[in-house]
Design a protein that fits this description.
The chain is an all-alpha fold.
Length: 115
């Protein structure tokens, strides 16, 4: 059984393919392989960057959770003190505290309005 390109006159390195058709497909295959390799490396670097960003965001969220927990404890203690003040006969002190809070609110409003 004889094929085209096989036999005594065929070059040793082309494995029975004609040199023109095989090299075109080989070059195209190499070009596509290199293109795929660059795309895979780009996706790999992008996924590594996304992983790093996710780790940083999780760390920041954990810190914010701790801050909110400590702030909630502080607000709870403050509200407990306010309840204790409201139960007592210290209405004058409570009135001063409410006026002070109103004053602070207007000062902050005034500062924001000036900007």
């Amino acid at each position: 059984m004889r094929r085209a390109g096989l036999g005594d006159g065929a070059p040793a390195g082309n494995y029975g393919y004609t040199s023109s058709g095989y090299s075109v497909y080989e070059e195209e295959n190499e070009r596509l392989t290199e293109s795929l390799r660059t795309k895979v490396s780009a996706i790999k670097s992008l996924s590594i960057e996304i992983g790093t960003e996710v780790k940083n965001q999780n760390k920041m969220l954990s810190e914010m959770d701790n801050d909110f927990d400590s702030t909630g404890g502080l607000l709870g203690a403050t509200m407990g003190r306010l309840r204790m003040l409201s139960r007592g006969s210290q209405t004058k002190l409570l009135c001063y505290m409410m006026l002070f809070a109103l004053f602070v609110f207007f000062v902050i409003y005034w500062i924001i309005k000036l900007r």
